[in-house]
Automatic annotation (TrEMBL):
SUPFAM superfamilies linked: S-adenosyl-L-methionine-dependent methyltransferases
Cross-referenced CDD domains: AdoMet_MTases (cd02440)
GO biological process: methylation
Record's protein name: tRNA (Adenine22-N1)-methyltransferase
GO molecular function: tRNA (adenine(22)-N1)-methyltransferase activity
Length: 233
């Protein structure tokens, strides 16, 4: 079974371990891939909804992996014990939902060797929360799938780490690659367009949003300049 680049990037990044938890697994594609590629002895596939969990169970049965992949229904990390999973994956959800899943079961999150996050939005707020709560960002990557860009963040709890940064731009935490530059260019085009549209439509009460967009635009422009000077690619 081939995975899409987004999930494959996550799966391939994992070194062999005992137990991986895929939180909000939905279709169980990733757990099946992880077992078939020898990444873990056991995978726990969780979902808050019964429907996706049932679909996962059927797919797991079809692959005859019932003894290696356990499906649990429940909210976030609440279905896991401390120290139960070496690696925790939370992918395909909003950054604020991921943040609340982590904060509601902080001890479980702290006990994992590695946490892999793939926020669909609000990655900046999620990174800020991680740093404020003593999680170290190990790596960040942009992955492209057709014309969509996805952000993947690898982190772990580190009691010694502390955050004294107030202003956070997510792109500084990502590998300096061509894809990151493409992603920033897209953001610059996006915010330029939004600002032009707001100016043209003269929206009442739009001043705060306008200021926000101008700040975002300038932040991405500044990041682009900085990353261009510190080329890795
Ligand atoms: C868009 S799917 C992502 C599926 C898969 N992780 C991926 O990246 O392709 C989000 C899944 O997360 C589940 N979900 C949402 N909130 C959750 C929570 N608090 N705990 C566990 N699962 C949750 C949803 O039911 C849904 O199946």
């Amino acid at each position: 079974m081939e995975l899409t680049p987004r999930l494959k990037t996550i799966g391939d990044s994992i070194e062999k371990c005992d137990v991986i938890a895929d939180v909000g697994s939905d279709h169980a594609y990733l757990p099946i891939y992880l077992i078939n590629n020898g990444k873990a002895d056991k995978v726990i596939a969780t979902d808050i909804n019964v429907g996706p969990a049932e679909i996962s169970r059927k797919r797991i049965k079809r692959f005859r992996l019932e003894d290696r992949i356990e499906v649990r229904v429940g909210d976030g990390l609440k279905v896991l014990d401390n120290d139960e999973a070496d690696v925790i994956i939370i992918a395909g959800m909003g950054g604020l939902l991921i943040q609340s899943i982590l904060s509601e079961s902080l001890e479980v999150a702290k006990s994992a060797d590695k946490i892999i996050l793939q926020p669909m939005r609000d990655s900046r707020l999620l990174i800020k929360w991680l740093l404020d709560n003593s999680f170290s960002i190990l790596e960040g990557k942009i992955v492209k799938e057709k014309d969509k860009y996805y952000e993947v963040i690898w982190c772990c709890y580190d009691e010694k780490s502390r955050n004294d940064v107030n202003e956070i731009n997510e792109v500084y935490y990502y590998n300096n690659t061509f894809l990151l530059h493409e992603y920033i260019d897209k953001k610059i085009v996006q915010y330029t367009r939004i600002i032009e549209q707001m100016k043209a439509s003269n929206i009442v009460d739009g001043e705060a949003r306008m200021k926000e967009c101008i700040k975002e635009l300038n932040d991405y422009k500044e990041a682009k300049k900085w990353l261009s000077l510190n080329v890795e690619r």
